[in-house]
TrEMBL record, chain A:
Family annotation (InterPro entries): PDH/Transketolase (IPR051157), THDP-binding (IPR029061), Transketo_C/PFOR_II (IPR009014), Transketolase-like_Pyr-bd (IPR005475), Transketolase_C (IPR033248)
Protein name, as recorded: Transketolase C-terminal domain-containing protein
Superkingdom of source: Bacteria
Domain Transketolase-like pyrimidine-binding: 17-182
Positions in coiled-coil regions: none
Gene3D superfamilies tied to this protein: 3.40.50.920, 3.40.50.970
Source organism (scientific name): Streptomyces coeruleorubidus
TrEMBL record, chain B:
Cofactor(s) demanded: thiamine diphosphate
Name of protein: Transketolase
Pfam family, one: Transketolase_N
Organism: Streptomyces coeruleorubidus
Domain Transketolase N-terminal: 35-279
Length: 328, 297
């Protein structure tokens, strides 16, 4: 598989990581320190990287078989019994197949369930749209009580998982499979707060998950052309960091959101909904549009939907009216 | 929590449970019957006042719910989240009325609260909400949710090495939801011996007989083939329900399925076994007549 679009535009030497590995290591750490910790999965022991967890804690891996409705319901039941269940499955099946269980058994019942959506977005690129998890932000964001997290690199994945474990309530976590670089600078994860990775005055680029490193790479390109872009990592999609959005709108006047998800109802929609009422500014929402994703590698799909570094820089030039004569 | 327990309810319920368990079968049945008809009367009044509800399915389940709360389940109304409580899940959440009536009779909250059933902002929603009603374990309403959640509860108990029990009551039409069979496969695979699924087999769903819609028979053979111990009882025979529900079972037994043959609307002659009473609401005259029948029986 080719490297991701995000990675191809960062420094050539950047090492790339599959965040599932960090997820698996952190979950074992949580199981070691807290006996309440259990993993629940739908036969996804391999794809959720739970093999070592299973070897170390065989009783605490509940594999219900290929049965997502049961998987989420059983997670709620385990929480009722005082356990802290991490319910792991590929993003499209966890969310799509078990959405009503997520609504009734987890969100509405407000159970202490951690929904771990593995390999979200375009991670299963060539397998086609049935396997792409791009509707999750839109679906999950409408559920009261639900916290929606999408960490962007291994360090943030670990911190988000530790936070989710100690938080008493429903959490949805996107755990990336598409390889990403370590973000620089590292800003410690804080639930509900966007991390400012680069300050800027001309425009704000808002990334989430895999698109954060792409937004950073775009900001480097733009800086060379005299466009000073702020870069925010919105690893908490819900609740929104309204303070960071207001500051971005007031101080930079233009906003681009970039997500490996459908923009209709996704992070872009969330940002636009908030700003439309409070501080409307020109925006562009980059992500999946109203079409089923075609087949292609994750990098191809990032380019196709215009969420790679080049496309983000292009969108920023259009929105700022800058660099019209400059080479792309 | 919006609703507060009745003072001393825990001791009162425990005392009653011990008395009923120790009583001779005929006396036990008579006392359970008295409670079940009082619970039905409260439910009738709730539905009549609210102008909404599911009287047919409430009354088919009334005797099962009564036996559970007063003779079987070890629960504490004043500590509804006591960790070692037995769990009961009403998967057929539209029968919320009979659950609320039973919970209030058990002292989880005062019976006077029943007058708010389905009022605007009442905690007593048309389907149960665990965050508003003490004693409710999980929010149900959409069908096919309770049994999967009960599987997780039973796994949690087994991991703890705890003998607390998990009982889930499903409708029979509800078994058309595939999620139940996902749960059945896994419950059997995991040998959840302290898990009991009770099927309220009243043979009707919303608009027609189950067998005319998407038939379930032979239901006992279905459950047996999924690896369950299966018992079929008369769902209005208090002693049969009590014996089946209090059967001693080990943590590693096969899970139990209790098929309770019931009559939809049981207890009121003109409501019994008529499909239209799934969610029909009695008129004032019908309410009076029904109340009289429920008192005379």
């Amino acid at each position: 598989m080719s490297t991701t679009a995000a990675a191809s535009t960062t420094t050539a030497a950047a090492e790339l990581h599959d965040c599932r590995k960090t997820f698996a290591e952190t979950l074992i750490e949580l199981a070691e320190t807290d006996p309440r910790t259990v993993a629940v999965c739908n036969d996804s022991v391999g794809s959720s990287h739970l093999k070592e967890f299973q070897q170390r804690f065989p009783d605490r891996l509940v594999n219900v078989g290929i049965a997502e409705q049961l998987m989420v319901g059983a997670g709620a039941g385990l929480a009722n019994g005082g356990r802290v269940p991490f319910v792991c499955a590929a993003a499209p099946f966890l969310t799509g197949r078990a959405l009503e269980q997520i609504k009734a058994d987890v969100a509405y019942s407000r159970t202490n369930v951690k929904l771990c959506a593995m390999s979200p977005g375009f991670a299963y690129g060539q397998l086609g749209p049935t396997h792409h998890g791009v509707e999750d932000f839109a679906w999950l964001r409408t559920l009261p009580e639900m916290v929606v997290l999408a960490p962007a690199d291994p360090a943030e994945t670990r911190e988000a998982l530790l936070w989710a474990h100690q938080y008493d309530g429903p959490v949805y976590l996107r755990i990336g499979r598409t390889k990403v670089p370590d973000l620089a600078p590292h800003v410690p994860f804080e639930a509900g707060r966007a991390a400012c990775l680069r300050d800027g005055r001309d425009i704000t680029l808002i990334g989430v998950g895999t698109t954060v490193s792409a937004a950073l790479a775009a900001s480097a390109k733009l800086a060379a052309e005299g466009v000073d872009a702020r870069v925010l990592n919105f690893s908490t999609v819900k609740p929104l960091d309204e303070e960071a959005l207001l500051a971005a709108a007031v101080e930079t006047g233009r906003i681009i959101t970039v997500e490996e998800a459908n923009v209709h109802g996704g992070l872009g929609s969330a940002v636009a909904e908030f700003l439309a009422a409070r501080e409307p500014v020109p925006m562009k929402l980059l992500g999946v549009r109203d079409e089923f994703t075609p087949t292609g590698s994750p990098a191809f799909l990032a380019e196709y939907f215009g969420i790679d570094a080049e496309a983000i820089a292009r969108a920023a030039r259009e929105l700022t009216g800058a660099g019209q004569g400059a080479a792309a | 929590m919006v609703l507060a327990p009745v003072p001393s309810a825990t001791a009162r319920l425990a005392g009653l449970r011990h008395e009923l368990r120790a009583a001779p079968p005929a006396e036990r049945a008579a006392r359970l019957r008295e409670l079940a008809y009082s619970i039905r009367r409260s439910d009738l009044e709730m539905i009549s006042r609210a102008g909404q509800g599911h009287i047919g399915g409430d009354f088919s389940a009334a005797d099962i719910v009564t036996v559970l709360y007063f003779a079987v389940l070890d629960v504490r109304p004043e500590e509804p989240e006591w960790a070692e409580r037995d769990r009961f899940v009403l998967s057929k959440g539209h029968a919320a009325g009979i659950l609320y009536s039973a919970l209030s009779h058990a002292g989880f909250f005062p019976e006077a609260e029943l007058t708010t059933f389905m009022e605007p902002l009442s905690p007593l929603n048309g389907h149960p909400n665990r965050r508003k009603v003490p004693g409710v374990e999980t929010n149900t309403g959409p069908l096919g949710h309770g049994f999967p959640v009960a599987v997780g509860m039973a796994v949690a108990a087994k991991l703890d090495g705890s003998h607390r029990r998990t009982c889930v009551l499903t409708g029979d039409g509800e078994l058309q939801e595939g999620s139940n069979w996902e749960a059945a496969m896994s419950a059997s695979q995991q040998r959840l011996g302290r898990l009991t699924v009770i099927v309220d087999r009243n043979r009707f769903q919303q608009g027609a007989a189950t067998e005319e819609t998407s038939g379930l028979d032979p239901l006992d053979a279905k459950w047996a083939s999924f690896g369950f111990d299966v018992r079929t009882v008369d769902g209005h025979d208090y002693e049969a329900l009590y014996q089946a529900l209090s059967e001693e079972r080990s943590l590693d037994d096969r899970p139990l399925c209790l098929i309770a043959d019931t009559i939809k609307g049981k207890g009121v002659s003109f409501i019994e076994d008529r499909v239209e009473w799934h969610h029909k609401v009695p008129t004032a005259e019908q309410t009076a007549a029904a109340f009289e029948e429920l008192t005379a029986r």
